[in-house]
Design goal:
heterodimer, A: 220 residues, mainly alpha, 80% helix, globular, B: alpha/beta, six-stranded mixed β-sheet, 27% strand, elongated
Chain lengths: 220, 290
């Protein structure tokens, strides 16, 4: 119970951030762009996946990537809370607005439950991964992740690695694409693919644990 | 349980120690020393924010890593940083919720109100952090450290860089908490800031406590300053040469005896005066002696 209350306290910080930082307006701009793209290029499933994943990265940049906020973790940990509660609370603060964006986009372009479920699960996985990446590396890493997820992440690895010559680069790229969270993978969640769901859930848990370890390490 | 509010036993950490100290409830101890002496690290170890390589920290007999101990010990850092985009009240509400997570006996709003009062921040409650001045940021750091009725406060340079009025006000607020039984360990790179606050002073140099004692005892030492017409070639026993002449502590001898010693050495005494040693001098002395 205590853990959940600490998570809740951490999560509640998202509301002032949504209204007083660029996070709110960025999510709005992302949603508008994706809805516009749905009329010209993207299918509904791509829109919900992109809304979730990119929204989560924007959230991670705003909530976990800000240098002041990262420095403030040291003060937070002198209060009765734990790194895991902070990481979980921040993950929720990243994921819930992005999941709301998925639903808003799905409503705007025509609701499809399978697409929304895929979008929300992808949001959870990408949000967790993004949090673990931006905590040590800051907003620059969030930008790189955003570009990767928006472009390369939608392409299956077998198509992408064909572009590289055989060798270590190709192997690394293929492994990263297979193992890391990527939208080409999470499209299958809409078809209830267990492998894709497990992949997303594994990243969700792993990302939160990694973020908690990083927060704890920063404290020490 | 123990009589001590805070104990550090044989602490060593990077660039620190071995250092030991014990703080009684209601006591205000000042930790002074030059920049890089290890004051901040000692405080962070005491706060449980840095794990010591050896030794242990206990808060009311409990290990500092114990969640119950964490509710009793508050830390205000040297450069206060808080979550961005929040108001003073929201920052305190965030920390208050963490304190209230253990039980429902106290409401977060009550803790926030108390924190605002303790630090004198009621008028700034609705201000955003980016509009706060240095003094208010230090007050906020102090408020979050004292939040939830904490019994041990570790204040890192909380009085540094403030104007005389803000410093006096904050000093009064710290003293009021101490009068209620809160133990305070406060650092300052400017010893003068602690002269009217700390009951005990610990001088830190290269990570070690090189001098410690009640402030009254340390400051009680009187110094005889002797102004000479010509600089001496060699000082009499117990004296040291200064820019204007000589000076010597008046421990164990009278002013007359000290001046008689100068005359016996045929020194051209123009004038003399007795003054009380400042904390700054004690710190500098500790630094020079080592």
């Amino acid at each position: 119970m205590r853990f959940l209350r600490c998570v809740h306290a951490e999560f509640l910080l998202v509301f002032p951030r949504l209204s007083r930082t660029r996070l709110g307006i960025s999510l709005l701009a992302l949603g508008t762009t994706l809805v516009w793209l749905s009329a010209h290029a993207f299918d509904p499933l791509t829109v919900t996946l992109q809304a979730g994943a990119l929204g989560a990265i924007l959230g991670a940049a705003a909530i976990g990537g800000d240098e002041t906020d990262r420095a403030a973790l040291t003060t937070a940990l002198t209060h009765p809370t734990t790194p895991l509660a902070i990481a979980t609370g921040r993950w929720l603060a990243i994921v819930l607005p992005a999941a709301a964006l998925v639903m808003v986009c799905a409503t705007a372009i025509g609701w499809r439950t399978d697409g929304v479920v895929a979008g929300v699960i992808a949001t959870a996985a990408v949000g967790s991964f993004a949090l673990a990446v931006v905590l040590p590396l800051g907003r620059g890493a969030a930008l790189a992740l955003f570009l990767f997820m928006a472009v390369a992440g939608t392409i299956p690895p077998e198509r992408l690695v064909d572009l590289a010559r055989p060798g270590i680069v190709r192997l690394t790229a293929a492994s990263a694409m297979e193992l890391g969270p990527a939208l080409w993978h999470y499209r299958d969640i809409a078809d209830a693919d267990r492998g894709a769901i497990l992949h997303a859930l594994a990243w969700t848990g792993l990302g939160i644990l990694l973020a908690a370890a990083l927060i704890g390490r920063r404290h020490r | 349980m123990t009589d001590y509010a805070l104990t550090l036993a044989d602490i060593t950490s990077r660039g620190l120690g071995p250092a030991s100290l014990a703080l009684l409830p209601g006591e205000i101890a000042g930790l002074v020393g030059p920049a890089g002496a290890g004051k901040t690290r000692l405080l962070r170890v005491a706060a449980g924010a840095v794990r010591p390589m050896t030794g242990e920290v206990r808060v009311w007999g409990m290990r500092v890593t114990d969640p119950t101990a964490r509710q009793l010990i508050g830390y205000a850092g040297d450069s206060p940083t808080f979550p961005r985009a929040l108001t003073v009240q929201e920052v305190l509400m965030y920390y208050a919720r963490l304190h209230c997570a253990a039980g429902r006996e106290r409401a977060p709003r009550g803790l926030v109100r108390e924190g605002l009062e303790i630090a004198g921040l009621a008028a700034a409650a609705d201000l955003r952090l980016d509009s706060l001045g240095r003094a208010d940021l230090h007050r906020l750091a102090f408020a979050q450290a004292a939040l939830g009725g904490r019994r041990v406060l570790l204040l890192d340079e909380t009085l540094s860089g403030l104007d005389a009025f803000a410093r006096r006000d904050l000093r009064g607020r710290i003293a009021r908490l101490a009068a209620e039984g809160v133990a305070v360990l406060i650092t300052s790179r400017d010893p003068a800031a602690l002269e009217r606050l700390a009951a005990r002073v610990l001088v830190l140099r290269d990570g070690r406590i090189v001098r410690a004692g009640p402030l009254a005892t340390l400051l009680g030492e009187r110094i005889l300053e002797v102004i000479l017409d010509a600089p001496p070639t060699e000082p009499p026993p117990g004296f040291r040469i200064t820019a204007a002449g000589l000076e010597a502590p008046l421990t164990g001898r009278t002013v007359e005896a000290a001046l008689a010693l100068c005359r016996a050495h045929r020194l051209p005494v123009r004038a003399s005066r007795v003054r009380v040693k400042s904390l700054e001098e004690i710190v500098l002395e500790s630094h020079d002696v080592q």
